[in-house]
Design goal:
Layout (H helix, E strand, L loop, with lengths): L1 H18 L9 H10 L6 E12 L7 E5 L15 E9 L11 E11 L7 E9 L8 E8 L6 E9 L6 E12 L3 E12 L9 E5 L1
Parallel strand pairs: 1-10
Antiparallel strand pairs: 1-3, 1-9, 2-3, 3-4, 4-5, 5-6, 6-7, 7-8, 8-9
Length: 209
């Protein structure tokens, strides 16, 4: 009887291990090459998320800083044309302007270039670096244009790493909160496909609110 119980426990542990999700420690070229051999037969997983990018200027240190601007930028305050800002801000499931203690699950790191002479239009090239939770260590890379006056904007997800390898999709993004002194918060709804290293990972089909 004892042997039977031990055998059942071993089977349960093996089953849980096979269905568990964990980012592989080995991210070497050899490991990636091995993964690519199975890629043609892999099925893409779908992920939907609703997150908030907190560009809070009153944080210590601030979430973003200006690093460059054109000689004419100060003469165009309506557009800030030529201004370049670098951001390293927290990503949460609730806006920090309403929930200051919201748990930080990722950070957004990249830059924004004010590239329009007719309106506030920002070229965004940023990485979402997941720092907590089940996708810790994975990243998403995005590239697109944010025009606050437009309302919802369509930002492209052009790649990813870790669990989000070969990610492709979109982010519907809009300014949720803005204040000249405090900063701004972007509401971002992700919808993308990716090919995780572990083929046993279950897809996440429900939108996280």
């Amino acid at each position: 009887m004892a042997k039977m119980v031990a055998l059942l426990l071993a089977i349960v542990c093996m089953t849980m291990a096979s269905f568990g999700r964990a980012l592989p420690d080995d991210q070497s070229p050899e490991s990636v090459e091995k993964w690519f051999k199975h890629f043609p037969n892999a099925k893409p997983q779908n992920m939907k998320l609703r997150l908030y990018l907190n560009n809070i200027l009153t944080m210590v240190p601030p979430a973003s800083v200006a690093v460059a601007k054109a000689n004419t930028t100060d003469s165009t305050p309506d557009t800030n044309f030529g201004l370049v800002r670098v951001i390293d801000g927290p990503i949460t499931e609730q806006p920090m302007t309403e929930h200051p203690d919201a748990k930080v699950i990722a950070r957004v790191q990249g830059l924004g270039v004010f590239s329009s002479q007719t309106e506030v239009g920002i070229l965004e090239a940023i990485n979402f670096v997941f720092t907590d939770g089940e996708f810790k260590g994975s990243t998403l890379t995005t590239f697109g244009r944010l025009a606050p006056a437009q309302g919802w904007n369509d930002i492209s997800i052009v790649g990813g790493s870790g669990d989000f390898r070969m990610a492709q999709g979109t982010i519907a993004s809009r300014i949720y909160f803005i204040d000249p002194t405090i900063g701004d918060v972007q509401e971002m709804v992700f919808d993308f496909y990716y090919y995780p290293p572990s083929i046993s990972m279950e897809p996440k089909d429900e939108l996280r609110k």
